[in-house]
Amino acid sequence: xxxxxxxxTALVAALVGLALAGCAQCDVxxxxxxxxxxxxxxxxxGDCGGLSCDAIYVDGATGNDSNAGGRAAPMKTITAGILKAxxxxxxxxxxxxxxxxxxxxxxxxxxxxxxxxxxxxGWNRDPDYxxxxxxxxxxxxxxxxxxxxxxxxxxxxxxxxxxxxxxSTAIWLANSDDVQIADCIIEPGNGGDGADGTIGATG
Length: 203
Hints:
Shape: elongated
Structural class: alpha/beta
Largest sheet: 7 strands, mixed
Helix content: 10-25%
Radius of gyration: 18 Å
Distance between the termini: 26 Å
Number of helices: 3
């Protein structure tokens, strides 16, 4: 039978540790983690919560991926926001407005992602503004990240696995270092049922 969600909750720390495969300096921070620019969810350092406002803005409710990605013209999807942020020199951070983003996300080297903003409130940042990624069986993936990359202020959920023996992983990092996960809730889905055993020999 499949593992229960209660068992997954009990194993969240272990799953995160396994997901951070090959990370030399990966860090899973608690409530005081502020990210690369030192601005946690509770910080009050200006309009962008203590972070540099020179970022790509994403709002799933009102954005459009053909937009420039500024405050007044945000993009719609995290994926498009990451691509635009990666193309900047130097790469910018991505700021996500409150809401649910139904997509699997692939991280880019040096592109940090911050949730907890509200486009409707002038892009203020507050812990009451929840930002969620609802991805596939692997919700967030990062490979070969060698420059400081932050995931901050997000609730990350992976979908339940459907195939026999399949896993559900909220965050998968490989061959990466200097990655920080702060102020996040990480929720892997249920794993798939195990394969049926073989019929025993006749007695």
